[in-house]
Amino acid sequence: MASKQSAKQDERNAKLSHGQPKLAPPPSQNTSRKHSAGRMVRASSNTKAATPGNSRTHSGQGRNRPTQMNNNNNTTSETSRMGKSGSAGRMKSNHGNTGPSRIMTNGSSRQRSADKTKRQGSGSSRQTPPKSKDNLSPDLQFDEDDVDLDDEQPVQFLDVTSNTNTTRYSENGGTIYPKTILEQCQEKQYNKVYEIDLHASKITKINNLEKFTCLRVLDLSSNHIRRIENLDANKEMKELKLYDNAITEISHLESTKELCTLQLQHNRIKQIGKGLSYLRKLSVLRLDSNKLSKIDSREMAPCGQLTYLDISSNSIDNLAPLNCLSSLEELHATHNQLKSIADLSRCRKLQEVDVSYNQVTDISGLKNLPHLTVLSVSNNLLNTSCLKAVGKLKCLQTLDISHNRLSDVDSIPMQFPSLEVLNITYNNISKWNTMCSLSKCENLSELFASGNPFCKDNGEKPNYHSELQTVIPSLEILDGANVKKSTAHSAPVMRPMSAASILSARQVENQLRTVERDLADFGANLAAIFESARTTVGSLPSEAPSPRPDSRPFGVPSSRPTSHLSIRSVSSVGDSRPVSRCSSRRRIADAKAFAATYS
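^ thats the sequence. predicted structure below, dont judge the formating
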């Protein structure tokens, strides 16, 4: 053993003479090294810097005890953690060497594993041919003697993926930073930010929003928030999205009196309480997928302007407290424990009601709703008498009563005269005659009737589509398929019209009137021009002025100084020449007369 250690020391000294960094001396012979399952810890590309002194770490651990490594920790902490678990690990440092640190990478360590597996002939799947160490960079070269592992023990590699979060808020513990929000919004002033989107940012607490005094929309959905708080400075907020969190109560909304939309679905709210007392302008409220078991009218009374309410997927068994919402237009209460629909006669503006997937046997509370247009009561326990109890709804256009216990639909045309879409699939309708009564629905365009006894193979009309089209000629869609309307008299084939025939007689008449009006205007303008010319001509003198006497001979210029010549004197040859004040034609006449006089 001593000779082997001496040979290793000589080899290290030889490498040192060739410029290789000096390695640490081997441990003493009395040091016990137990490697039941050798394990090398490699440094990945996203591992932080190693310990001071460019240390190298090699550790071993017991068989069948997997090691969990976090790439965000440094090599020293990983080695100390593994050492505490009872492994016989040891650390070799360079002891102040200034040479480059030689880190065992995944590629070089796998090369050693492939060589060792090939020598053992174990038939492992890693049978890649060994690569030369000359192909590696100087910083990544390693010595086989640096790792003291027995040849009988296999080398195991752990490829741990990085868990680095790309979200800036998650890196800082889910804290909201105002400067980061400014960067996202590309603004320089806090009062210029009107909308903040922090969806799925792993935020745990609402804070640091005091500077955004002009905030209108705040999206904190899909986070880890447990309480609604620190919104006192955001008094102008209009929309607040807090769905998909861990909120247990509605509170601390006293300052958000301008709030119009509040989304709290997919939380853990058990009761509404007084959280909505100050939201007088609230128009949209979503509380679906929570843990509500009941609703109190005193909790909903302050929301007098509420138009949309969704309380689906809860444990509510009574809708009577909602009768105080006089402005309510849309109500969704699916997947609850409702057995009857209470009186909602005060909600006279209701246009859409959905109470599907309950245990409803009575819908008489929907009577006297003059504006109800959409009603969905599918997947309940309604029979024909229950449907008749709702009375007449003149404005109802869409009715979904599928998956119930209807036996006939004779009363539907009288109850819902404006019906356009009807879904009666999977009921107990067995007679074909009752389906023929739907022909009285003059506006019915979509019908879904599959899944009833009459259309089964042993029913009265297994092939009912063609006959139903004949019975109800207004149908356009039957069981989701477009159907062709059957009419007694087909419309004549229309040929494409030419461009000349498109203009109607009225259009031609209008065009003629326009042309006549333009001609009349043109004539009036022309008459005005002639009248102006006539007035100008009438103002001219009837005779030409008499010529002035001039003693100087013809062609002799005047003795008056030229500096005082006027336009009139320049245009004339002499003082005896007649002066013209009219058009060029008159000037020509004067010139001829002057030439005749002095010729």
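The radius of gyration is 49 Å.
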